[in-house]
Design goal:
Layout (H helix, E strand, L loop, with lengths): L4 H17 L9 H21 L11 H19 L16 H20 L8 H19 L4 H14 L5 H5 L7
Helix pairs in contact: 1-3, 2-3, 2-4, 3-5, 3-6, 4-5
Length: 179
C-alpha cells in the first residue's frame, strides 16, 4: 500500500497532537534525544527479526514490523513538532532485506544527526527532510513486502494512548519513562 503526502501529514498531525496531549512535549527534548530513540526502535526491530519474535504489545504481528511502526511513529512525532509537510520523495533504492533496510535507516538517522551538528551544512530544510525520507522509506519497504504498515501504526498509536507507562502521572513517578 502506497501512502500519499496528505495522508502522511494527517497521520503526523494526529500522532504529534496525541503525544502533546499526553504530555510528551511538556518539556521539549533536543534532537539528539530523538536520534537515540529512533535508533532504539530500529535495534528492537532487528532483535525481533533475529529471534523471529511476535510483538508483546500487538501479538498478532511480528515484532519487526511493530518496531518499524514505532520508528515511523517517533519520526512522525518529531516531524509534527516541526510542522513538516514536504513528503515528495522518490525512493532511490528498493531494499528487500530486513537487515539491509534497518542498517540503511540507522544510516539515515545518523546522517540527520551529523547534519544537525555541521555548521557549514546545517539548515532548517535538510534535517527534517532526512527524517521524512526515512518515514517514506518505511512505507516503501513495507509495500515491497506487501505489509500494511499504516494499519499497524494506527493500531500502535491507539494502543499507546491507553498505556499506563505513557500516562503523565506514571512517567512523573520514580523510574517512570522520562523520554
Amino acid at each position: 500500500m502506497t501512502i500519499e503526502a496528505p495522508a502522511l501529514i494527517e497521520l503526523q498531525t494526529k500522532i504529534h497532537q496525541q503525544n502533546k496531549d499526553m504530555g510528551w512535549w511538556d518539556n521539549p527534548r533536543p534532537f539528539h534525544t530523538f536520534v537515540c530513540l529512533f535508533h532504539s526502535e530500529l535495534s528492537e526491530a532487528m532483535e525481533g527479526d533475529r529471534k523471529n519474535l511476535m510483538d508483546d504489545h500487538l501479538p498478532e504481528y511480528e515484532m519487526f514490523w511493530v518496531e518499524v511502526a514505532d520508528f515511523a511513529i517517533r519520526c512522525l512525532d518529531w516531524l509534527g513538532s516541526k510542522n513538516y509537510e514536504k513528503y515528495d520523495f522518490y525512493i532511490f533504492e528498493r531494499l528487500s532485506s530486513k537487515i539491509e533496510f534497518l542498517s540503511q535507516m540507522h544510516y539515515q538517522v545518523s546522517t540527520a544527526l551529523n547534519l544537525s551538528k555541521d555548521p557549514y551544512f546545517h539548515d532548517k530544510e535538510n534535517l527534517p527532510k532526512s527524517i521524512a525520507y526515512a518515514v517514506s522509506a518505511c512505507f516503501d519497504f513495507a509495500n515491497v513486502h506487501q505489509f500494511d504498515l499504516l494499519k499497524v501504526i494506527n493500531e500502535k498509536v491507539a494502543y499507546n494512548a491507553q498505556r499506563a507507562d505513557h500516562k503523565r502521572e506514571n512517567r512523573a513517578a520514580e523510574n517512570g519513562k522520562k523520554y
